[in-house]
Amino acid sequence: MDFLYGQITDNPPPLVVAPESWPEYGRLADPLGFCAREEVGTHPRGVRWSFWPLAFEEYVSDTEPNLADSAQGELARNRVFIWKRITRAAIPEGWREVSKKPWRIDGYHDLGTGGDYTAAWHKNARREARLWREEHAARYDIVEISLEEFIGAYRKSMTVKKAGADLLSVLVRMHALPAQKHIALWGVRNKQTGRIIAGTATITSPTHKSSVRYCPFMLPEARHCYASIGLVDHWFAHAQKNGTQYLLFTCFWQPGDPKGWQGPAEFKSHFGLQYVAYPPELTRFVRGKIF
Description:
Layout: E1 8-9, E2 37-40, E3 46-51, E4 54-60, E5 78-84, E6 96-97, E7 105-110, H1 123-136, E8 140-144, H2 147-155, H3 158-163, H4 166-175, E9 183-190, E10 196-205, E11 210-218, H5 227-241, E12 246-249, H6 262-268, E13 274-277, E14 282-286
Parallel strand pairs: 1-13, 4-5, 11-12
Antiparallel strand pairs: 2-3, 3-4, 5-14, 6-14, 7-12, 7-13, 8-9, 9-10, 10-11
């Protein structure tokens, strides 16, 4: 099946796995919404959240969830298990595939042993990175900013008008977890006005030598100076300097997704990526306590 962006691989490098399975990711901040949630299971570790009378458990792993492992807990009601595999194709007995669609498509760039990472970028991205560096970087700084400044700029952005603030809410919860030391908040600051005109969070996993871009945003001023390209360029350079090998962009558009995802996916596709289509998610129902 043609996903429009390039080569889909069924055999990514061993360290390239869905960010949700990283120990540094802060899964307890997912899912969306303000429902009660708790970590469950051992290997794999998952997250359970509850909308009475049901509880939902989600696991991102190639290891089959152990149903008995999470039978206890404050939210162990009638449970719907959601199992998102990374490469495993076989469907064990008792599990049901609700759709043939991959649960997500991610793209990753392998920084390898160094060198000019922009050589693999699309020509438009290389051009815009050059324009950012030569014509605009002198008027802007890319700096780490506080969570409060990130939130304030995000709420003024075009992004929140188009997509809402759900991802921002998850980021705020992530930032409050012990794993928050692996989150960096980058902002593009206008040196003259002090205003943040674009930003992104990055979550880095030393365990998997990987980093993922999360919750990017831009204000109208950012369009005219290629600030979004500048942020990606900064992320690549920072990762290369610090020994991070794999840079991930998540949630590429596929048939059936909202059309509004196509523009952002096209932007992300310009950075020399290989693609991973994760197997369709599996579900099963397990009875538990009612109250």
